[in-house]
Design goal:
With about 270 residues, the protein is an alpha/beta fold. About 50% of the residues lie in helices and about 15% in strands. The strands form 2 sheets. The protein has a 5-stranded mixed beta sheet, sandwiched between helices. It has a two-stranded antiparallel ribbon with strand order 6-7. The chain is globular and about 50 Å long. The termini are far apart.
Length: about 270
């Protein structure tokens, strides 16, 4: 087991209260270059979440399994009756590629099946680690809306650490698909913004990655059209909401031009 403390260099953010990320690496060892990329991304991610209002330090465990089968066996030992940690039908052959799970109660990100590709595993690590950051950002308040939680995770999962810096590899096909479905009326943005985790999961089962793509597009539009401090203000609004508040109504009041601008205006087309 290796414990690594990362100092955050936030030259791109003027005011910082975030100090460090402490990652405990367990499970199968990661290649040195993979660890270096993860460390760089955690610094970048920590800086962004700090600007959104995350204070103090972050402690998280990253457990990696080369074998997907071994990973599921481990999770079953922790949660024997929880369907989230049991093989799904497409996993039975162990040929379903890489999988990832974040366990909030244990502050642990688990990545299964790294044998299917290191680059894909690194992207999934970014995704699952983002869930931890988002959970900590909303700690002690109303939970993060599922679209924001998954949209931020998809955003960071699509980032790559290059020599020139951190760059995005947002899939153009996903952008086009979401744009078309919105224009045809096949996606109801207001309803989607109010989805529970159960409803989001049901949409995923019925329509594949569409829900993740839409969450990614929404977050990308917000990031592109709102300054970071305004994104932080949106987080405060969402954290202070009451249980009966509609997230769609809050976003409609907060976003310039409301949901109509977000759904049909130039902003939704600007990133496509």
């Amino acid at each position: 087991m290796k414990i690594l403390i990362l100092s955050i260099l936030l030259f791109f953010i003027p005011t910082v209260s975030f100090s460090q990320v402490r990652i405990t690496y367990t499970g199968d060892p990661l290649p040195k270059k993979a660890v270096e990329k993860i460390e760089s991304m955690m610094g970048y991610m920590g800086g962004y979440y700090s600007a959104l209002g995350l204070n103090g330090s972050i402690d998280v465990e990253l457990k990696v399994f080369k074998s997907k089968k071994e990973g599921y066996r481990y999770m079953r030992s922790l949660y024997p009756g929880d369907q989230r940690y049991i093989e799904q039908p497409h996993d039975k052959t162990m040929g379903g590629g890489i999988g990832g799970v974040y366990m909030p109660a244990r502050k642990m990100a688990v990545v299964l099946g790294m044998e299917h590709g290191t680059d894909a595993a690194i992207s999934l690590i970014y995704h699952e680690m983002s869930h931890h950051f988002t959970g900590m950002l909303f700690s002690g308040s109303m939970f993060a809306p599922v679209w924001l939680n998954e949209g931020l995770a998809e955003h960071f999962g699509a980032l790559r650490v290059k020599k020139s810096g951190v760059v995005s590899e947002f899939p153009h096909a996903d952008r086009g698909k979401v744009k078309t479905m919105i224009m045809l009326g096949d996606l109801n943005l207001s309803k989607f913004l109010d989805f529970t985790q159960k409803e989001f999961s049901q949409m995923h089962r019925n329509e594949g990655q569409t829900c993740y793509s839409l969450a990614h597009v929404i977050v990308a539009v917000l990031m592109e059209n709102l300054a970071t401090d305004r994104m932080g203000e949106l987080v405060v609004v969402l954290k202070k909401r009451k249980r009966d508040d509609k997230v769609s109504s809050l976003l409609d009041s907060f976003y310039p031009g409301g949901l109509q601008s977000l759904e049909k205006g130039d902003t939704i087309h600007k990133i496509v």
